[in-house]
Amino acid sequence: MRNILIQNGRVIDPSQGLDRVTNLLIADGGIAAYDASPDGQAQVIDATDRIVAPGLVDMHVHLREPGFEEDETIESGTAAAVAGGFTSVACMPNTDPPIDSQGTVEFVRRQAAAKGQCNVFVVACVSKNREGKELSEIGQLVEAGAVAFSDDGAPVYDAELMRRAFEYCLMFDKPVMNHCEVRELTRGAVMHEGLVSLVLGLPAMPAAAEDVMISRDITLAEATGGRLHVMHVSALNGVEALRRAKLRGVRVTAEATPHHFTLTDECLRTFDSNCKMNPPLRGKEHVDAIIAGLSDGTIDVIASDHAPHAKEKKMKELDQAPFGIVGLETALGLVVTRLIEPGHLDWPAALAKMTINPARILGIPKGTIQIGSDADVAIIDPKVRWRVDPAQFRSKSTNTPFAGWELTGRADTVIVAGRVKFCRGGGS
Amino acid sequence: MTTTTAELDELGVVPPTWKRRHLLGLEDLSAEELTLILDKAAIFRRAAAQGQRKLPLLTGKTCVNLFFENSTRTRTSFGLAARRLGADTLDFSASTSSLSKGETVIDTAKNLEAMGTDVMIVRHHTPGTPHLLAQNLHCSVINAGDGPHEHPTQGLLDILTIRQRLGRIAGLTVALVGDILHSRTARSNIWGLKKLGAHVIVCGPSTLVSPRWQELDVEYSYSLDAILDRVDVLNLLRIQFERQATRPFPSVREYAHLYTMDTQRLAKAKRDILILAPGPINRGVEVTPDVADGPQSAILEQVTNGVAVRMAVLWLVTATWKPA
Description:
The structure holds 2 protein chains of 2 kinds. By secondary structure, chain A is an alpha/beta fold. Chain A has 13 helices and 18 strands. Chain A has 2 domains: 4-51 and 374-423, Urease, subunit C, domain 1 (Roll); 55-362, TIM Barrel (Alpha-Beta Barrel), CATH 3.20.20. In chain A, helix 7 runs parallel beside helix 9 (284-295). Chain A is globular. Chain B has 2 domains: 5-151 and 306-319, Rossmann fold; 152-303, 3-Layer(aba) Sandwich (Rossmann fold). Chain B has 12 helices and 9 strands.
C-alpha cells in the first residue's frame, strides 16, 4: 500500500480541536504525521481549498441485507456511503431475518469485509425477532461485534422491556437507540398532523406521539442510569425534553436527520411518496427547533436514516408506500447548504456531529484523525455547487425528495484505512 | 328559462383560458374556471330539462370509471354523463380486478389506458391517488373522490344547486355540518365556495372540526344551534364511520341530539334556508325525513345537477386534449 500525502488542506478534526492548513501523511493504513513534506514516494493529493476531515460516521443507516436486497445491499449501501464522504456506517437490524443472533451479526460483518467499501458497524436488536417481548441475547451479540441496540423501524414499546434493556446494556456500556413513537396516536398515519394534513385529508400523526415516548425513555434512562440514544428527533417538545434531561445529567444523546432540518410537511402537497418518512416531515416551528437543538448541542449527531426502497415499492398509493428516503449521498450537501452556509453551525461543529460524536456514542475508534488512528479521511470541497441527480447515486434506490436540488459541498476523495475508496471524476 | 340554439352552440366553445387536462380538485381552480364549469353545466342542465339529453360532444371517446371504493351515485352519474355525451364507457371496480393478484394501481390504470381510454374517472380511499395516476398516464384524470381529500364534482354540483336556488354564491353564508375531518365533500365545497365569495362555517363535534380551519379563513363552530339563524345554506355531511380510526363521539344518539337537522331546528333557521346533503344520507342522523323531503331541501336537485356538472367536466377536460 502506497503512502499518501494530503497536501495543503484545511485539516479539521474536532476530536483534537484541530483546524489549520497543513499536510497530512498516511502510512500503512494509518495517520502517520502532520506537517509532513513530500518525500517523492508517497502519492500526493493536493487539497488546496479543500477541507480534510476524519471520514464521516453515519450511525443510522439501513443496508437492507439480508432480506431486502432489491432495495440495497451491503455492497451498494457502502458504495453510496463513501460517495457521500462516509467511511463508517452503523446498520440497523430491521432486516430479514432481523439481526438478533450472533450468526446474523457475523453474516453482516463477513459481507461487509468481503464487499463493503467502508467500515460497517452492527446495531443489533433489543428484542428477539424485534417483537418487543423478550430481550435478545445482548451479551452474545456484543461478543459478536454489535455496538448498540435498537428495534428501529419499531419503537421498544413495552416500558418494562425498555427498562430492562437499559439495565442490561449497562454492564456492556452500550446505548439503547430508540425510535420514539406512541403507536396508538399514529395508526394508519402517513404524515405529520397539522394544517397541511387537514387540507390534504391524509391520516396524520401528532408531534405528541414522539414527544411522549422521548419523555418516557428519558425517565427510564434516568431511573436506571442506562444510556439512551434518541433516533431521528423531529419535534419541538422532544428537543426541549432532551435539553432539560442533559442539564440534569441524564445519559442521553440524540440525532437529527438532514430531511428533518430541511423540509416541512408542505412537501406532501404533491403527494410525493418520497416525502413520506417516519418520523414525518413536520411544520416550520419543528424544523426551527431541530436547528436550534443542533446549534446549542442538544442534538449531538447528524445521521441520515438512509432508508432505501426499490422504486416499485414507492410508486404506490401514499398509504401503501413505505416510509423513508435515501440519505447517504445528500447528507453532507444538506449540512453545508442548510446548516453551515446560513451560519447555524460552523465547520468544526458540524463535522463533530458527523465524526467524533457518533463514534463516541457507539464506542468505536473512528471519527478521528489523531496520529495512530486508522486513516479514514474525507477530502471535502466546501464550495462546489452541484445538482442532485438520483441517476448518479451509488445506492440501489433513488427514493429522495431532493432530486434536482442544488447543494453546496461534497466529498471529492474518500480514504478508508489508507486506501482511496472514492474519487470523484474517477482516477485513483 | 329555455335553452337556445345559441347556447347550445356556445357549449362547444372552450375559451383559451381553460387549459386543464385533469380535474383533481377545486383547491387549484380559479373563480373564472369554476364559473366556466358551472355555466356549461347550467346549459346541459337546461337542455336536459327540455328533453335534449343527448349532446354528442364526446363521440368516439372512451371514459373509464376506475373505482376502488364503493359508490352508487357518483359512478352512475359519471357513466350517464359520458353516455349522454356519446362516449363509450367502461366500469371497473376493485373487487373484480387483478389488484387482488398483486398488480399495482398504476399498472392497473396503465392497462386500462392501453385499451384506448381518453378519460379515467378515479375514486380511491387514499388521498393523492388520482394525482399519482395523472402523473403516470397520458389520458385525462378526473378525481371522483380521493379519501377525505377532494371530490371536485360533488363540490361543483353543490355549488351549482345553490346558485340555481339562490341566484348567487357571493355573500352567502354556507355551513358544512358533520364529519369535516373525513369529508372530501367539505374540502371541495370550502375551496369552491370561498373562491366564489361565500362565507363558510364548518360545524360539528370538536373531534371532527379543527380550529385550524380559521387559518384558511374558514369559521368553525361546535354548535349548530348557535349558527342556525345566520346561515343561508346548510350542507349536511355524512358521518364517515368507515374512515374513523376511533369513534370521535360517544354515540350516534348523542351526535343526533346535537346535530340532526329536524323541524325544531328548522324553525329557528332563516325562513328560506337551503338544505343540501351529498348523500348517501343516514335519515335520522344528519337529517330527519320530514326535513330531507321538505321544501327547503334540494337533495334530489343535487343529484340531477350532478349529471350536468359531470357532462361539463368531461367535455372540458377532453376539449383541451391534444395528441402528444
